[in-house]
Amino acid sequence: MADFDMPGDPSVDVIDDEGLDGLSPTETDQRRMALQSILDAWDEALSEGVDADILANTAIFAALSDMVEAYGEEPVAEMAAGLADRVRQGEFTLNRVMN
Description:
The chain has 99 residues and is mainly α. Helix content is 57%, strand content 6%. Strand 1 and strand 2 form a beta hairpin.
């Protein structure tokens, strides 16, 4: 299965208050910012007593729901079908030991 690209807007320049062109954050920067925001919210929910399994299932539900709304059921189903292999290959395993 080929890599699945969700449609999206390319990076565009934004105009600041003084009319000067500025660059929007790169996709890599946006991914880092998004992950940090999610990890912060995750830690807060855990500290408030939310069980990690409930939090994980809810996060997956929220992500898939938003993706279905944005892209439709079939594209998201195709993307999700490839997740099993990615999980088995260790793409989502943190702190794994490489042999």
